[in-house]
Write a structure and sequence with these properties.
About 35% of the residues lie in helices and about 15% in strands. The chain is an alpha/beta fold and about 400 residues long. The strands form 3 sheets. Strands 6-11-10-9-8-7 form a 6-stranded parallel sheet. It has a 4-stranded antiparallel sheet with strand order 3-5-1-12, with helices on one face. Strands 2-4 form a two-stranded antiparallel sheet. The N and C termini lie far apart (about 105 Å).
């Protein structure tokens, strides 16, 4: 019979060996703690008393992890407290310092925008319609040959009115009315109102309808809107130049023939004042009147005789005429081409006996100087006579 071979002992794994070693270490530690300390002898041979001191318990050794098990790092706390080691520990070498904390400041409240001035169009819409129809007849005539040839069917068009610069809007109701008179099927969607401050790139209105009708009306509508918004924007610049003083900005009779009532509306939208509509409103003595008369006293005497109780406004070009006008007790003095220094002298001489208006050679560069001199009004022909048209774009798409 074959002889039985002795059983071979099983190989122990590294984890099993590490576990046995940890157990032996723990038993040895406990034995050392239980053993009493040997008494020490004093010099005279008497045993020394033993003081019972609790032994320090060492931290138990953790068994090593089996091979292949990853070592997990200590998790960093998600909420850093005042005593957090992550806050108090120094930065590792080579790392940049922590950025200084930015203080949280409460943003200042934004100022509320100024209310848009409400200016009523004090003229009948029939006058506007007459003006628009004349402008359309001038531009379109018997028809838009190009558009009618390219889009004879029911092609639709959409248009966006865009402001290309900063300024003040005026004439949007006129712009809308042009499209209405061309075709009632054109829809209009305003995004702004007259008197509103515009920014470059701002959408002002949308238009949609038949392409033939939209393209027929766009140029006439833009001509009105660009001209009136240019007047309002120019007026706003002069009004801002004298802001904080008692001086008001006036328009003049130097207007575009046939457009005076619209231009004066635009002046008021921009923050100016329109007092003179025509020669039948008030008694205004100009330099030409004085050149054909016998002087200031004679002119004032004749006007009072013809229009008793009517307010008289008289233009003066020098200090002698100013003194004569004050003696004649006119209501308003129009200082023509007076420099700011001479205006201050005139104000000191008037002493509130008449309203004072400055006219001629007034621009944005010296308007505030005249206002600080103490005048009541500044009439500016630049508001309507040579104003730059406001830059709008009308972008059309299907």
């Amino acid at each position: 019979m074959p002889t039985a071979k002795p059983a071979r002992p099983k190989a122990e794994s590294p984890a099993h060996k590490a576990s046995l070693a940890a157990r032996k270490t723990t038993v040895a530690t406990r034995t050392a703690q239980k053993a009493p300390a040997a008494p020490q002898s004093q010099p005279d041979g008497q045993p020394t008393a033993v003081t019972s001191t609790p032994a320090v318990q060492p931290a138990p050794a953790q068994p090593p992890l089996p091979p292949g098990v990853p070592i997990m790092p200590f998790p960093r706390p998600t909420i850093l407290g005042l005593g957090s080691p992550w806050r108090t520990a120094g930065r590792p070498p080579g790392m940049p310092p922590r950025p200084a904390p930015v203080p949280h400041s409460t943003p200042a409240p934004q100022p509320r925008p100024a209310a848009v001035p409400v200016v009523t169009m004090r003229f009948p819409m029939s006058a506007v319609d007459k003006l628009i129809k004349e402008a359309l007849a001038e531009d379109v005539g018997d028809g838009d040959l190009t558009t009618e040839s390219l889009f004879p069917g029911k092609v639709k068009a959409r248009g966006k009115l865009i402001a290309n610069e900063e300024g003040v809007l005026a004439g949007l109701p006129i712009f809308k009315r042009v499209f209405e008179l061309v075709d009632k099927n054109i829809s209009f969607e305003p995004r702004a109102t007259d008197g509103m401050a515009l920014a470059g790139g701002q959408l002002v209105a949308r238009v949609s309808g038949p392409a033939v009708s939209v393209l027929r009306a766009e140029r006439t509508a833009l001509n009105f809107l660009q001209h009136l918004s240019g007047i309002a924007s120019q007026t706003a610049k002069f009004a801002n130049a004298v802001k904080g003083t008692k001086t008001r900005i006036l328009d003049t009779r130097r207007t575009t023939p046939g457009l005076r009532f619209l231009e004066k509306y635009a002046v008021e939208v921009g923050g100016g004042v329109s007092l003179v509509k025509g020669l039948s409103d008030r008694l205004v003595v100009t330099e030409s009147h004085l050149a054909l008369s016998e002087g200031v006293p004679s002119v004032v005497r004749q006007l009072r005789k013809a229009h008793s109780g009517k307010r008289i406004e008289l233009t003066v070009t020098n200090m002698q005429e100013l003194d004569q006008a004050l003696t004649a007790k006119v209501n308003v003095l129009l200082l023509e081409n007076f420099p700011p220094g001479q205006v201050r002298q005139a104000i000191a001489l008037v002493q509130g006996r008449a309203k004072v208006e400055v006219t001629g050679k007034v621009g944005l560069d010296n308007a505030r100087a005249y206002a600080l001199a103490g005048v009541d009004y500044i009439s500016v022909s630049q508001l309507t006579q040579s104003v730059k048209a406001f830059d709008f774009s009308f972008r059309v798409s299907r």
